[in-house]
Amino acid sequence: MVINMENGMYQKSYEIREKLYDVIVIGGGTAGSAAAIASAMEGAYTLIVERNSYLGGSASGGQVTPMMQNGIKGRIGRSYINEVILKKMAEEGYSADDSHGNDGWFNTEMLKFTLEEIFTDYNGEILYNTELIDTVVEDGKIKGILIHNKSGLLLIRGKIFIDCTGDAVAAYDAGVPCVTGEEISHSNQAMSLRFMVGNIKIGKLKSFLKEIGEPDILEYPFVEIAALWEWDTPFSSIFKQGVKDQVIKSDDCKYIQAFSVPGMPGVMSFNCPEIPKIKDALDPVSISKAVIIGRKMIKRLYRFLKIYLPGFEESFLMSVAEMPGIRESRRIKGKYVLSEEDYACRAKFDDAIARTAYPIDIHGHMDEKKKEIAPMKKGEYFEIPYRCLVTDNIDNLLVAGRCISSTFTAQSSIRIQPTCRAMGEAAGIAASYCVRSGIKANELDGGIVKDRMMERVIK
């Protein structure tokens, strides 16, 4: 590896690892863990390269719980891997269904254990605390990836690579054309920084909400609280009073949402604050600034909660997420670009690998397109084709998660966890099949992947 320096050249050698993996998954987050599990289940020798010391990404380290639902009833829109994960967690008391059939409630800390156990049970290998440095590309194929950890620089080799970094880092390094943000301004969706509060008297909180006239649609111990600044509700008025009293700022409560957590009695996970005015999700300076601003907002919010909400008097700030919630950043230009037109016409594809009815959900942007597109009615959905996961540029690369090939607006509908797990599962199945069959990932008939996914779900 040669690095150009201002006053000369600096050369750094790296070790080449002898092992040759069938499949290397870069990023073990929501899509990456599902991709790796699916690949290993299909018999491929699979490695996850993960920069953190746990799997799950935003779902675990980012504390994004519960999962938003994809809006499709029954098993037609389900990911088999998602069901495997939730079933194992439910058996151990760390996920749950509410009375409305939402099975997306889960414990963020225990998810780390669950994903790791499932993957390693299929002989998968993990390299934690390891960063991707670069890709080695020859003749339209990735021959290996250069990584860095405490051992230094290392080149690891694989047959098929799956980019699940969320930011399309491996694809971008390999020369795949990419875009970021809204197509004209290139600004990204707003980021959030989540936090958890412990020792809340949930029953007391629910009684208070009932007293002030807030609808209580969930049975104890489930609870969700939500408020938007523009809402004229009893709960929103409490936050507005906090602003008037100068305990919090208006930006702190533009968007408030919190949920109880299975297996953590007295704990609530807050899906806020949303960080204002930070629109570059690929700039390390901007991301660092977002985290710093977010922590200041959380400190004010927690103080407010203790003063204004019954049930929080003896609570404590339990944790702040280890990473900001980045909803969208870089996206590849694949063989097919999923668009808002596909959403609007409820598009179906022969090579569909995921389905969703989740709405267009853009944070931090006044998007006229969102107003123009009719929301899904009951029973409606649109599909994501396999071609959004592959590119003409690299034969042995798949991409899964929020960075697949799509427009800015369409991406806002497909970025939720169940859909990302389905995309990861599809990538893992495809990668394993390509290894066995000697087929290029970008020439594989996506209908084969679709059939395998449907076979598993029906089973």
Short description:
This protein has 459 residues and is α+β, with helices and mostly antiparallel strands. 31% of the residues lie in helices and 22% in strands.
Largest sheet: 7 strands, mixed
According to DSSP, the number of beta strands is: 20
Q: Approximately how much beta-strand content do the residues carry?
A: 15-25%
Helix content: 25-40%
The outline comes out as: globular
Q: How many DSSP helices?
A: 12
Question: What features would you describe in this structure?
Answer:
With about 450 residues, the chain is α+β, with helices and mostly antiparallel strands. It contains 12 helices and 20 strands. It has helices spanning about 30-40, 80-90, 110-120, 170-175, 200-210, 235-245, 285-310, 340-345, 370, 410-415, 415-435, 445-459; strands at about 1-5, 10, 15-25, 45-50, 95, 105, 125, 130-140, 140-150, 150-165, 180, 195-200, 225-230, 255-260, 270, 315-320, 330, 350-355, 380-385, 395-400. Strands 3, 4, 7, 8, 9, 10 and 20 form a 7-stranded mixed beta sheet that branches. It has a 5-stranded antiparallel beta sheet with strand order 13-14-15-12-16, with helices on one face. A two-stranded antiparallel ribbon has the order 1-2. The radius of gyration is 22 Å and the shape is globular. The termini are far apart.
